Amino acid sequence: MTEHRSPDARFRTSLLEDNDGPANNPSENSTMGEIIAARFSRRGFLKGSLAVSAIAATVSPLAMIAANDARAAEGSAFKFDELEAGIDDKHHVAPGYDADVLLRWGDPLFADSPDFEPTKQSAEAQVRQFGYNNDYVGYIAIDGSAEHGLLVVNHEYTNPHLMFPGIVKIVDKDGKKSAELAPLSKQQVDVEMAAHGGTIVEIRKDGGKWQVVRDGKLNRRITANTEMALSGPVAGHDRVKTNADPSGTKVLGTINNCAGGVTPWGTYVMAEENIHGYFSGELPEGHKEAANYKRLGIPEGAYEWGAHYDRFNLAKEPNEANRFGWIVEVDVNDPSSTPRKRTAMGRFKHEGAESIVAKDGRVVFYLGDDERFDYVYKFVTKGTFNANDHAANKDLLDDGTLHVAKFAEDGSVEWLPIVFGQGPLTAENGFAGQADVLIETRRAADLLGATKMDRPEDIQPNGVNGKVYVMLTNNSKRKADQVDAANPRAGNAFGHIIEISEDGGDFAATKGKWEVLLKCGDPSVADVGATFSTATTANGWFGMPDNCAVDSAGRLWVATDGQGPKATGRTDGLWAVDTEGAARATSKLFFRVPIGAEMCGPLFAPDDQTAFVAVQHPGDGGEDWEGFGRPSYYEDLSTRWPDFKPDMPVRPAVVAITKQGGGKIAV
Ligand code: FEO
Ligand code: CA
Ligand code: CA
Predict the structure, then answer these.
(1) From the alpha carbon of 473, which atom of ligand 1 is closest?
(2) Domain-wise residue ranges, the chain
(3) Residue 318: is the preceding peptide bond cis (ω within 30°)?
(4) Residue 256 CB neighbours (<10 A)
C-alpha cells in the first residue's frame, strides 16, 4: 500500500500560508479574515444575492446609503452593467459580453500534437500541448495587428490531485473528510515538468472570435527542461556551477513562472516566483548556502522532483537552487532561441516584470517579491531602448541598476540602488562582488533598510497617467506594532493598492511620492477599514489584489487571488477600478471565475476590444462551498469547468472576453 499525504501540505502558490519570511513573527493574532469568516458563516442561512444585501442591512445603515450611491456611479471611466458577485461552478461576465474559452490545459499547439487524453498523459504529449495553471498572459502583435499576434502564457505550477486519476484517497480524520495524495510516479513527475513553463502561440481574430493558429511557425512550449542560459553578472560564478554544468552558464528549465511582461522590444519575460517548493533534501552540513536558502524558504519540498532528479535534491546538487528565482527573457521570433535568465534583475520570488520606457530612453522594470514582509523593486537598464533596431536591445537586461523601495511616512519613496561596494553591500557583510549581491538580493535589500511590504504582487506602470500601481495582496501576520504608512493595517487580510508618482514624471527617477489608492475588503464592515468609494456596490468591492492591467485608455483593472466562501463570500474575478477624479477608488465587478480558481492574466488587446484572462487552478477546493462541501479531486471535482463532461477533468484555461456586436470594452 502506498503512503498517502495531504494535498494541503503540497505547495499552494496562491496561499503561501506556510511560507513566512524570516522577518515574520510566527505567533498568530486574531485577524480581520477571522472576523469576516465569522460574518460569512451566517450566509449559510440565506441564499444568493439577497443574502449579500440582507447582511449589509443588518451590519450597517451606511452600507445601504453606499448601495444607493452606487447605482448612480457617475463619473466612472467604465461603462458596463456590473456583474453580480457570488460563487458557483461556472465563469460569469458582465451582461452584453461574451467570455469564450480560447486555450485549455492539454489543447494541441502544433499540427502534430496529440489530442488531450487525461487518462493517458505523457510528457511527450504534454510538451506539444498547452500547459497547466496559466498565469501571466501577454500579447505580441504580428505586423502591428490587434487581431493577429502571439499570445504568451506562463504555466505557473501543477495540481496533481486535479490532474491525475487514481492518486487521491479520502480519509476520515476526527469526523472530517480529507484527501491524501499518493506519491507521484516518475512518469507523472515528467508530465508535471512538461506542464510548467510557458506557451507561445499564434492567435487570430476571425469574424469577431479568436482562434488558435495550430500550425503557427512561432508556436513554442517552454518547460522545466528547456535549455536556458544564465547571463549577466552571475553567469559563470562558482555559486551557480553544478555537476551537470561546470561552466555555471547553462540551466535546464524555468519553474513557477507567475506573472511576467512583454518588453518594449517585443520579447517575453517570465518571472520565477515560488522556486523553493521544488527543492528537497538537505544541504551538506555547514554548507555556505544555508543562510541564503533559509531566507528564501529553500527547500520546501512540496514537489517530488528531487526523488527522481538529482538536481532538485540539495544533498546532491547544493548549487542548483541558485540557478532559479530569476527573470527569464525569451525571443519569441525564433522558436529555437535559448531563453536567458537575466541575473542583473535580481534573485527573489519574482511576481512579474512589467516595463515602460523612461523619458531618457532607459527601460524601467517594476518587480515585486511576493512574500509577507518582502520588497518592491525596480530595475533600470543602463542602455537605452532603440525603437528602430530591435536587435540593438538584445542584451539591455544584462546591464543596469536594481533598486529597492523605501516608503517613508511622509508619502515619499526612495529607490535605493543595490550595488556592490555601496553602503553596506561590501566584503564586511559577506559580498565579494555584484554576483553575490544579486544571488542574495533579499539580504542586500534587508541591509539597505527597504520597507517590508504586505506581499508585493503585480506592479504596473501606467503610461497614460504617469503613475505606478502596486498590488499588495495581504499579510495576516503584520502586527499592530509593525504597521507603517505604506502598510497601514495590522492583520491585513484583504490587501491594498499603492499608487506611486515618480519625481518629475520620470519612471527612472530615484525618488517619488506615493499614496494608498485603496484598502480592500468589505466596506460595509467598519472593522475592515476598506476605502472603496461610496459609489462601489456590494458586488464591486474585492479583497486580495494580485495581477492587474492597464488598458490603452490608462484605466486600471485588478484581478484577485484568494477570495472564496470563507474569505469574502465571493469567487475571484476581474474588477474595474477608477483612479481619476470624483470616481477614484470606485470598483465594479466585470468577470468572475468558477469555484476554487484564481484570476490571472489579465491583458487587454491593443485595440481594447478583447480582455484576455487566465482562469488558474479551477476546482482546487470546494470544502467550504455550500454547493459542494467536500474535498475536490480528479474523481470528485467541485467543477468540471470548462467542458463539463464526466470524462474530462477540470482544466485551467485562457478566456477571451469581447463585447457582443464588437467595440471597445467598458466604453
Ligand atoms: Fe504567483 Fe504571487 O502569485
Ligand atoms: Ca497569486
Ligand atoms: Ca500572482
Answers:
(1) 2
(2) 15-273+325-659
(3) no
(4) 29
